[in-house]
């Protein structure tokens, strides 16, 4: 059977139709060579370095917030009278932009009158405060004098008490002497050794001594009562003086409160007057009037309404990119960035930044601590000093769209393909101490390595 099959095969090879469909030997060799080159290329690519990046979209902004696009607001309510600029006008700081007229021509004069009245209230309140302070000083001085006078009267009453007490003792001694003399005269009268007149004089002296003792006791009692009354009066004088001082202090607090209220209202009124007097709006910074928001000569504006949009001149530019929250833990200050600006032709291969053409270098300066409400985080990128300069302000204006690739770590192409097939995040930055400690705590460090 094998012999028959071999004969049939040789017979088929000799057929003209078979020779027409048979692959030529050089073509077979070329196919084998290309296949080998293809698989060798794949094998080599598995070990070729690949730069991991995370991509974001954003726009060109000024680095300083004050240099970014801003709306010029009206400080007062009124009617637009005159425009000094139009859209596209270049302005310097302090150049007039718009004149606004108040709807009520007497409004400013009334505010000034209100301010004058407030100043008069302040002056009167301060004068009242000074008068009350002087009154308190006088009351304290008079309180000391009144208390000293009351103490003096009390000491005088105490002296009178001592004098009355001594008078009582003297009256008692005189009565005792009169009693002895009366007894002696009675004995002598009974013996006939003295006269009736002498006995009567002794009785009169005894009666006078008793009367003197009663009078001395009455005087002593009166002195005691006077001393007690003056002692109570001393406390009352001190209390009355303290009550007057406290009343004056309450009046002083009221005057100080009035001064504080006026001082609180005065700055508000002055600010209101200052805003109302500012009927001409000036450019806050050097820049260009991008858009006028109100119609000239006719439109009414309210306080705080925007009248124009100013784009300040800014040499220090930056790009704000919005990055997905999945990659934001890997993005930190100092990361290198490649930027593509709208309108500039570019060739950028994400994993091989060395081959990029038309891109500009940048460095991550700031990463917002919270998202923008959509799960994306803002990353502020500034020019890389080691790279070529960004285009000038004439060509690279604020608001130009930009695309950025933030560099992460370098890995092999094989690892990158494996990561993408498994939908894993980019390689974690193991040179970050905080990331290392986090991985050690979670026990996932070995897995990442």
Automatic annotation (TrEMBL):
Coiled-coil stretches are 108-135, 161-188, 238-279
Query: What's in the keyword line of the UniProt record?
Result: Coiled coil, Membrane, Transmembrane, Transmembrane helix
Q: At the top level of its lineage, which domain of life is listed?
A: Bacteria
Where in the cell does this protein reside?
Cell envelope
The record, for InterPro entries, names: Single_hybrid_motif, UPF0194_transport
What GO terms fall under cellular component here?
cell envelope
Q: Does the keyword Membrane apply?
A: yes
Segments spanning the bilayer are 29-50
| Identification of the protein by name | HlyD family efflux transporter periplasmic adaptor subunit
Higher taxonomy: Bacteria, Pseudomonadati, Spirochaetota, Spirochaetia, Leptospirales
Q: Which SUPFAM superfamilies does the record cross-reference, listed alphabetically?
A: Single hybrid motif (SSF51230)
């Amino acid at each position: 059977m094998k012999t028959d099959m071999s004969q049939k095969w040789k017979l088929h090879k000799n057929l003209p139709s078979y020779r027409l469909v048979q692959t030529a030997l050089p073509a077979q060799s070329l196919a084998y060579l290309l296949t080998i080159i293809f698989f060798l290329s794949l094998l080599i690519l598995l070990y070729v370095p690949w730069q991991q990046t995370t991509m974001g979209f954003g726009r060109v902004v000024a680095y300083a917030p004050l240099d970014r696009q801003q709306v010029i607001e009206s400080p007062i309510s009124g009617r637009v009278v005159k425009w000094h600029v139009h859209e596209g006008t270049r302005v310097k700081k302090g150049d007039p932009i718009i004149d606004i007229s108040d709807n009520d021509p007497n409004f400013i004069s009334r505010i000034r009158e209100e301010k004058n009245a407030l100043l008069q209230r302040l002056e009167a309140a301060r004068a009242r405060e000074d008068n009350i302070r002087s009154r308190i000083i006088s009351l304290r001085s008079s309180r000391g004098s009144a208390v000293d006078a009351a103490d003096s009267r009390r000491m005088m009453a105490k002296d009178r008490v001592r004098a009355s007490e001594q008078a009582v003792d003297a009256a008692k001694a005189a009565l005792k002497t009169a009693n002895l003399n009366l007894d002696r005269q009675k004995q002598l009268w009974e013996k006939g050794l003295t006269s009736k007149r002498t006995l009567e004089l002794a009785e009169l002296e005894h009666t006078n001594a008793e009367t003197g003792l009663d009078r001395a006791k009455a005087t002593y009692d009166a002195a005691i009562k006077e001393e007690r009354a003056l002692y109570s009066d001393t406390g009352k004088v001190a209390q009355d003086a303290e009550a007057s001082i406290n009343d004056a202090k309450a009046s002083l607090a009221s005057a100080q409160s009035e001064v504080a209220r006026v001082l609180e209202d005065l700055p508000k009124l002055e600010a209101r007057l200052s805003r109302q007097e500012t009927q001409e709006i000036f450019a806050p910074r050097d820049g260009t009037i991008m858009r006028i928001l109100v119609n000239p000569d006719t439109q009414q504006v309210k306080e705080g309404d925007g009248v124009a949009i100013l784009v300040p001149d800014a040499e220090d530019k930056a790009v704000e990119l919005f990055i997905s929250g999945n990659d934001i833990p890997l993005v930190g200050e100092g990361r290198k960035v490649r930027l593509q600006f709208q309108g500039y032709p570019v060739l950028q291969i994400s994993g091989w930044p060395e081959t990029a053409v038309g891109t500009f270098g940048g460095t991550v300066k700031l990463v917002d601590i919270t998202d923008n409400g959509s799960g994306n985080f803002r990353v502020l990128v500034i020019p890389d000093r080691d790279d070529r300069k960004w285009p000038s302000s004439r060509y690279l204006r604020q608001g130009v769209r930009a695309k950025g690739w933030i560099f992460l770590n370098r890995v092999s192409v094989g690892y990158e393909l494996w990561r993408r097939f498994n939908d894993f995040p980019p390689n974690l930055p193991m040179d970050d101490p905080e990331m290392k400690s986090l991985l050690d705590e979670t026990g996932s460090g070995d897995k990442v390595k």
